[in-house]
Every structure is written in structure tokens, then in C-alpha cells.
UniProtKB/TrEMBL annotation:
Residues 24-114 form the Pyridoxamine 5'-phosphate oxidase N-terminal domain. This is Pyridoxamine 5'-phosphate oxidase family protein. It comes from Hydrogenophaga crocea. Gene3D superfamilies: Electron Transport, Fmn-binding Protein, Chain A. It comes from the Bacteria.
Amino acid sequence: MDSIHTSDRSPHAGAHDVSGFSAEFLRLRAGSVLCWLATVDDHGMPNVSPKEIFCCHGERELLIANIASPQSVRNIKAHPNVCVSFVDVLIQKGFKVKGAAVVVEPGHPRFGELEFPLQQMTRGAFPIHSVICVQVLGTEPILAPSYRLVPGTTEDSQARAAQAVYRWPRP
Ligand SMILES: Cc1cc2nc3c(=O)[nH]c(=O)nc-3n(C[C@H](O)[C@H](O)[C@H](O)COP(=O)(O)O)c2cc1C
């Protein structure tokens, strides 16, 4: 896994904006409806669950809203190491992120700052009990095998194929 500053090998590689995340990372994050947060419990048992309310913050933080994630929060409090992945399901590219997470609760000096961008995403529709704040240590691109194995695969062809697989729009 590459460090955040040398994170991807896309055509945009090297083009990092001030946030520290690459342009390719930000593009694919914006196109990904869900991320999947992987944690581990006290017995080493893995736990993965989807989160829709997530965003990049500052130089190297990934924020996830704890709206209904009791197990993830319990696990992080015991074991901070997490893996988060997201994929734009149409173009079928995404990223894997590894890092150390903390659960930032109301009353913490940074709670307001970290809750704000997530609140903007929900427009206040859901209560955010706490913010899972991941210090990103490394990122790695995720790519559908077709891009490497099927000559002529483009983002457009992949999106057309995905639409057919997902049967969308539905008849
Ligand atoms: C499409 C979708 C989006 C979700 N987004 C979030 C979210 O942003 N934050 C959250 O806390 N839970 C979210 N959930 C709910 C959790 O994934 C769900 O409550 C899960 O059981 C939590 O498990 P955990 O405690 O192991 O994290 C979402 C669920 C779905 C299906």
C-alpha cells in the first residue's frame, strides 16, 4: 500500500491538490455512494459494514458519520486499525484506505469541525452520534480486472456493462 502522497498510478498520479488526497482519489470518492468500513473486535473477528456518509477532510483524514454503527465504534475503541474501501460501481474503480481511527464524540474539541461536513451531506436528516475519524496512512487503487485483462476497456464501456449488470434503469 502506498503512502497517501504517492497513492495512485492513474493518469492523474502526482496531481495532488492541497488536501493531500490525489485528484483521482477525490474523483472516485465523489463517485462512490458507499464506503465499507472494516474493523476487528477483541477476539480478532473482522466486521465490515457500509457507510454512506463519509468524506475527506483536510490533509489526510477520512470522516465517517456514526449514525447506526455500534459494533464499528466498539471495535475502533478497542483496536484503532481500520480498512475502508469504496468503489464507483459504474466505472468500477475505487480505493482502499488503511489507517488508524478514533471515535470523536460530542464534547471533544474537534467534534463540531468534524461533524460539520457530514451534517452538510445529511442536511441534518440523521443524528450523528459521533464521528469516526480515520488518519489515512496509505491508499491503494481498486480496479475492475477488465481494465487490465480486456483490451479496449474504457470507463464508458465499463459503465455501460455495469448498467446492464445492475439492470438499471429497470424496465
Ligand atoms: C446504504 C446504507 C448506508 C448506510 N450508511 C451509514 C452511515 O453513513 N453511517 C452509519 O453509521 N450507518 C450507516 N448504515 C447503517 C449501518 O451500516 C448498519 O447499521 C450496520 O449494521 C452497522 O454495523 P456496525 O455497527 O458493525 O458498523 C448504512 C446502511 C446502508 C444499507
